[in-house]
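Re: beginner question about structure tokens

> Can someone show what the tokenized structure looks like for a real chain? I only ever see the sequence side.

Sure, here's an example I had lying around. Input first:
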Amino acid sequence: MSDKSDKKEKIKLSVEKRKITGRKVKVLRRDGFLPANIYGKKVKSLAVQLKTEDFLPVFKEAGETALVELKLVGEEKMRPVLIHNVHFHPVSGDPLHADFYQVDLKQKVTSKIPVELIGESPAVKEKVGILIQPLNEVEVEALPTDLPEKIEVNISDLKAINDTVSLDEVKIPSGVKILTDQKEILAKIEPLAKEEEVVPPAEEEVPAEGEEEPTEEGEGEGEGEAPVTEAKPETKEEKASEETPKEKK
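And the corresponding structure tokens:
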């Protein structure tokens, strides 16, 4: 019985040596090329470039866990690599740079494997709670050919609040050593979010008719206006002068 990895078609990619470095790589990107580097243990770092349109479908298929056979123009032997450290433009989403980590097929490597939730949670289906995924990737150690593309986590047994699936409950492919803490939770059911109650504002007390609302000193006086003073009673002389009309001259 042949191994599953033998049946899988190998992923291939072609690159060429790059002469342009530094800030001038903007010219490469404008012309449709992606700047990249090849590096690894006992491997001399090499600046390379490739067509962006060739890189994107390969990266979509391989991610950072599947082996890629890299063909460097001018060399006959293929280089087994893993795609690492892909940088994307924050606005356009176009790739800006990538690294190709050349591996020794006979030596184990460490890599972060994505976690994928499969199945359907009864708690979510029946709206008992919500599903959260605290951990999106798991660090493993394995031979390059044994690296899994993903770690699948079945959530069909999550039926109630606080039900969880931890890493030690997940089946791991043979030849793969888990480096992440085995007690890490990969999926959990949390209570539904409660809607916050809106408290109406307190009604202001209206003073009864004939009553004046007490104010603090200075409150109610217009800005720049003189303070109101109590009127003085008129004298007899002032009152008489107002009542007696003045004679015409």
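Each token stands for a local structural state, so reading them left to right follows the chain. The mean pLDDT is 83.
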